[in-house]
Amino acid sequence: MKIKKLTILFSLLFLSQFSFAQSSGASNVTLYALMAVGLFLLLWVVTSLSDNLLKIEAEKSGIDTEKSDIGIFPKLGSITAPKAPSFVKGKFHKLKKGFDIKLKGEASDTVDHNIGVTRFAIKPPNFRGNSPIPKVIVAQGDEVKAGEVIFFDKKNPDVKYVSPVSGEIVEVRRGAKRAITEVIILADKMMDYEVYDFPKIENCNRDDIRDAMIGSGLWTLLNQRPFDIIPGIDDIPANIFISTFDTAPLAPDHNILIEGKEEAFQKGLDVLNKLTVGKVFLGLDGNNKPASAFANATGVEINYFSGKHPAGNVGVQIHHTSPIRKETVWTVGVQEVATIGGFFLNGKVDLSRKVALTGAGIAEPRYVATHVGAHIGDLLKANMSDPNMRIVAGDVLTGQAVTMDDFLNYGDDQITTLAEGNYNEMFGWLLPLSPRPSLSKTLPGFLMPDFKYEADTNTHGEKRAFVVSGQYEKVLPMDVFPQHLMKAILANDIERMEGLGINELSEEDVALCEFVCTSKQPLQSILRKGLDMMREQS
Question: What order do you get walking across the sheet with 149-152 strand by strand?
Fold first, then answer.
């Protein structure tokens, strides 16, 4: 009807202009111009009608015209949209915001399977929200198998925590107020596994899988968002998200982490599909070709993400695929998925891990094959090139400073070393004398995007007034206002915190904001304060 009215209106306009041109003796140029305009409008009407008919026929054939570029002419968005690499087989997201911190000391592709770690520990403080003194059911001198229950939380006794290796319990370390900090195991040379009965996932329901995971300690591998806590045993997630790559500084290559565990990884995805009422989302690297275990995974929705850090953060991927509103979702790491899948293949809780030893302080940066909770000193023995180094369990943005006598945290897949910044710099920020990674264009680093720095822990400044600078929004590819959120947390304004999107964030998502912060604010600890506050109110 609209097209018919436009045609009639054009015809009347054309005839009136034509009559006027004849009666007034106008030049032929005016007549030809009007005829050209008329022809253009006629072609537009015919094209629009044909385009609509084509879409109608496409919808009759079951084609989604909203997602598909159906039409006579391509949409403007499809022309201007970034082109995906040839290896991309799913949805492609090009993230424009972010910042890569390139450091020296990237791990080589070799994996050392003979690192010789003798001690391992499981650390109750790694599990947020648990009682500081859990119920330990083993004693010093007891022999345990890999996968055997070590302790459980008094608040939630159904969820079990198991040993990563077989061996002898040699120490139960305590901290302030007698809180248990570590249960240390002297590992056997040959691993002896506790073997559990497990259901065939093809012939069981969600409750059967849940009970098997709870009894074997696998439930502790799951992480609930918001709040980053272990899910309740009766919780059902709206969706489950897995990121198969990491863009943090010197982060391990997940293609290497999954080598040899491809079957277990796919089995883990099948298990996770049984635990959610929604989908399992798999985030793949859109910058580099992912491993076939990721690219050819079945039963999942695959999304590729291309961009600078934090494109590899699962929180960023959640935001761009299915943002958290009022519901809860789960996240799982790549090696944790393989552990879950391996259990449903052979009944063993295999907490073996590949860990990247990285940083300028490592003589031979490489991967090592070990288990959860490995002793830091055993991992780094004879491989530290400089004693004036800070050891970080994790990456330099979100990791925890540790010593040679500490143990890896439950989810760590990386150790980073960097020089201690215990020095005063001449003229400070007025005249930066050493190269350093920085978002600021006042330093020449932006002219050398591929240059790798030998950074240290010096903050090159002190804590200042918390001013609005707009820096955070430049590096966080999410539709949130982190600076306003941080101030709402400091003001204990719960309603404003929720409205500003605190439930979508975790510490790793604001770590880069903390790095670029001129005010030197501890954004990660501020965010954790806000999340704990929200959890208490929920």
Answer: 135-136, 149-152, 160-162
Asked if 252 and 335 sit in the same domain, the reply is yes
Domain check: are 410 and 485 in the same one?
Answer: no
Helical H segments across 131-191, by residue range:
none
Rg (CA), the chain: 29
Q: What is the distance between the alpha carbons of residues 429 and 440, in angstroms, rounded to a whole number? A: 12
Last residue of a domain, one of 312, 346, 380: 346
Residues 295 and 322 in one domain: yes
Residues 263 and 334 in one domain: yes
Whether 78 shows a pLDDT value over 60: the answer reads no
Any domain includes 137: yes
Please report where in the chains the tokens 């909203």 appear, as a residue.
66
**So what's the pLDDT on residue 63?**
61
Domain assignment present for 453: no
pLDDT tens by residue, 112-145: 999 999 999 999 999 998 888 999 999 999 999 9
Statement to judge: residues 335 and 239 lie in one domain: yes
The whole-number pLDDT of residue 5 equals 54
Alpha-carbon distance of 474 to 334, in angstroms, equals: 29
- Whether 306 and 97 have beta carbons less than 8 Å apart is answered as no
Whether residue 427 is contained in a domain is answered as no
Q: Residue 7 in 3-state DSSP?
A: helix
**DSSP assignment of 96-120, as one string?**
-------BS-PPPS-EES-----EE
The answer on 258 and 143 residing in a single domain is no
- Does residue 432 lie in a domain region? no
Of 381, 415, 377, nearest in space to 399 by CA: 415
The token pair at 419 is 């020089």
Render pLDDT for 28-62 as a digit per residue (tens, 0 to 9): 777 778 888 888 888 878 777 777 777 777 666 65
Q: Are residues 223 and 327 in the same domain?
A: yes
- pLDDT value of position 42: 83
Structural domain for 72, as ranges: 2-81
Q: Which of 91, 4, 78, 38 is nearest to 306 (CA)?
A: 91
CA distance 252 to 355: 8
List C-alpha distances in Å: 531 to 187, 229, 249, 450, 502: 37, 11, 25, 36, 7
For the ranges 1-10, 73-82, 120-129, the lowest mean pLDDT is seen at 1-10
- When mean pLDDT is compared across 91-100, 324-333, 387-396, 452-461, the lowest value belongs to 452-461
Total domains in the fold of the chain: 4
